[in-house]
Design a protein that fits this description.
The complex is a heterodimer of chains A (318) and B (300). Chain A has 318 residues and is an all-alpha fold. In chain A, strands 1-2 form a two-stranded antiparallel ribbon. The longest helix of chain A has 27 residues. Chain A is globular, with a radius of gyration of 19 Å. The termini of chain A are far apart. Chain B is mainly α and 300 residues long. A two-stranded antiparallel sheet of chain B has the order 1-4. In chain B, strands 2-3 form a two-stranded antiparallel ribbon. In chain B, helix 1 packs parallel to helix 5, helix 2 packs across helix 8 and helix 10 crosses helix 11. The termini of chain B are far apart. The relative contact order of chain B is 0.20. Classes of the chains: A mainly alpha (318), B mainly alpha (300). Chains A and B meet through helix 7, helix 10, helix 12 and helix 14 of A and helix 4, helix 9 and helix 11 of B.
Chain lengths: 318, 300
């Protein structure tokens, strides 16, 4: 009984946030037109992608450029699950099962990348993960069962509510992992792998955990994306998508979950505001990357969370 | 068998192109420990410059070998300047920052060249003028060696030998090798590290531009995103040969070109682009330092 109480207490914030979906969903569905609602959903999906990549790139310091590959895997496995394995119509349970299947497939792939690439660091890892993402894409492109080059149409079952719940779970669980004692180990791997290993941190284990978990949530985000749009094509998951997610992490501050989330929201809204200059979007991204690295290499928030800002702590600081 | 030899010739010509680009990667990696993601885009700029120069100087309407040589040299000179500029603006200030910062900047520069190129040159493919008429030099049964294939292979060889001469026999080359061992020691010996790094980028970019101009001859369709995949593949070639190792980059490039052509011919052309990455992962698993690489131990 005591265990149950403490379990509930520890998860109270998370549960509350998840329950918030009901009034929030009602409100947003009433207040926003479909176009704005779509942007809100994209913020959720991109937020999940950025936060999950942040676990790998920002917190564990393993520069990965293959996040779009994991997303693609999640999207396609989730979609195939809905089409082939769940012929009873897509309800909430069906969607949850499809997302879980996609997430698990991506996690398996993350494990697969994580294992052999452990002996690589920095640039090599970046290029291998890039390659892995492209291999996934090329294989899907050549798989006729999921539409191949034609793309794949699926019932659009994901809504604001499902995206919100997934995003809250993703951010909440990763937040707790990163801010737990184990989170320190992830950061130790980032700061100095050799020193961390010398201090008894099982660096291999933490790198694999980071890759697997990061890939899992990217897969779920991919599944949501597929079920929200209703049509997927491998062109949505190219190297450029990976770069876009990297930009979010870098802009927000490698190592800051709230930073990744804020940057994801900003970079989702910004192109919509800049509709008239859509062809300049990638140029802006690239300039953003270069200028950011030259002037503020740690990103906007650095490795700080928004909750740690001095702004909130003015009183205690004095 | 005939088809196999024909594919081998095609692969060799492609391999020579990859090798030229890979040399630039290897040089930059050797002195800066940076995967210069923008290198593949310098190759694209090389092809584009050659296209415009050929039109401006009127060689597009009056094809000749001399015209091609002039076009190639102008493209190489312009891209050398571009390479030095990229180093100066994007990489110099980051030299003492964590390596991931430099990597991110490199990605930024690469995207800037690609999408800036799309704005400047237009997103549609352009057709490279036929500066040299294609004809067969040698024919045996079904095997044809065209003058273009021969030109690509010969010019690449000449450039590679030239580079080797510069790096191994001149004072500048000695400075370059010294910097690749240690910035600080080289600086103490009176070497201007900044100049050497600029020079490294200039040499590498000039080779990439030459590759770009030659690709225009064999595959006339050029576009602003054409550097993306060859760039990554040339990097894989450099890793395959052992990054930082000159002969390794050449062997890696040729192996890569031949493998790709054979896969495209005998398996499926859609898998062609994935081959590079399969090779890369294989190499890194079996012999992470590449075919000719040396093992180094990292210390705290």
């Amino acid at each position: 009984m005591g265990g149950l109480v403490s379990l509930l207490r520890r998860n109270a914030v998370l549960a509350l946030l998840v329950l918030l979906q009901w009034p929030l969903g009602l409100l947003l569905n009433r207040a926003l037109n479909p176009y704005y609602l779509q942007i809100v959903v994209y913020i959720g999906i991109n937020g999940m992608l950025a936060v999950s990549l942040n676990l790998i790139n920002g917190i564990t310091g393993q520069f990965s450029l293959g996040h779009a590959g994991f997303m693609a895997l999640g999207a396609y496995v989730g979609a195939a699950f809905t089409i082939y394995a769940w012929p009873y119509g897509v309800g909430v349970m069906g969607l949850a099962a499809a997302l879980l299947a996609g997430g698990c497939a991506a996690a398996a792939a993350g494990l697969l990348v994580g294992m052999p690439t452990l002996r690589l660091r920095g640039d090599y890892l970046a290029i291998v993960t890039l390659g892995f993402g492209e291999i996934i894409r090329v294989v899907i492109l050549n798989t006729e069962a999921v539409g191949g080059a034609r793309g794949l149409s699926i019932p659009a079952a994901a809504t604001f509510t499902s995206t919100y719940v997934c995003a809250v779970l993703c951010v909440g669980l990763l937040w707790r992992l990163v801010h737990s004692p184990k989170g320190t180990a992830f950061r130790a791997v980032r700061e100095d792998e050799i020193a961390a290993a010398a201090m008894g941190v099982d660096t291999t284990r933490y790198k694999i955990i980071a890759f697997t978990l990061g890939a899992f949530w990217a897969g779920v985000a991919g599944g949501l994306f597929a079920h929200f749009i209703g049509y997927i094509h491998t062109n949505s998951f190219t190297f450029l998508k990976s770069i876009e997610i990297v930009v979010m992490v870098v802009l927000g501050g490698s190592g800051s979950i709230s930073g990744a989330l804020l940057a994801a929201a900003a970079l989702t809204v910004l192109p919509e505001l800049l509709r008239f200059g859509a062809e300049y979007r990638m140029i802006i991204y690239s300039l953003l990357l270069i200028v950011m690295m030259l002037t503020r290499p740690a990103g906007l928030l650095g490795s700080q969370e928004i909750t740690q800002w001095r702004f909130w702590k003015l009183k205690t600081a004095r | 068998m005939e088809q196999f030899i024909q594919q081998l010739i095609n692969g060799l010509a492609w391999g020579a192109i990859y090798a030229l680009i890979a040399l630039g990667y290897t040089m930059v990696y050797g002195v800066l420990r940076l995967i210069n993601f923008a290198h593949g885009d310098v190759y694209m700029i090389g092809a584009m410059t050659a296209y415009y120069v050929a039109h401006w100087l009127g060689f597009a309407s009056a094809p000749s070998l001399q015209g091609f040589v002039v076009v190639m040299i102008v493209a190489m000179a312009l891209c050398a300047a571009l390479g030095a500029l990229i180093e100066l603006v994007a990489y110099r200030r980051l030299r003492h920052q964590p390596r991931s910062s430099m990597l991110i900047t490199a990605i930024g520069v690469s995207m800037l060249l690609e999408f800036g190129g799309q704005r400047v040159f237009g997103p549609d493919p352009k057709f490279f003028p036929q500066l040299i008429e294609s004809h067969s030099l040698f024919r045996a049964g079904g095997v044809v060696l065209t003058n273009l294939d021969a030109l690509v292979i010969v010019v690449s060889l000449v450039l590679m030998i030239g580079l080797r001469w510069v790096v191994m026999k001149t004072r500048v080359g000695m400075a370059l090798r010294a910097v690749s061992f240690s910035y600080d020691t080289a600086a103490l010996m009176g070497i201007n590290v900044n100049t050497v790094l600029s020079l490294t980028f200039m040499l590498g970019s000039a080779l990439a531009a030459a590759a770009g101009a030659m690709v225009g001859l064999r595959n006339p369709k050029i576009d602003p995103l054409m550097g993306l995949l060859p760039g990554v593949k040339a990097f894989v070639a450099a890793v395959l040969g052992g990054i930082g190792n000159f002969p390794g980059a050449v062997v890696g490039g040729v192996l890569m070109g031949v493998t790709e052509t054979l896969v495209a011919a005998y398996l499926s052309s859609t898998y062609r682009d994935a081959v590079a990455f399969v090779i890369l992962i294989g190499v890194l698993l079996v012999k992470p330092t590449g075919l000719f690489g040396k093992v180094t131990v990292e210390k705290v």
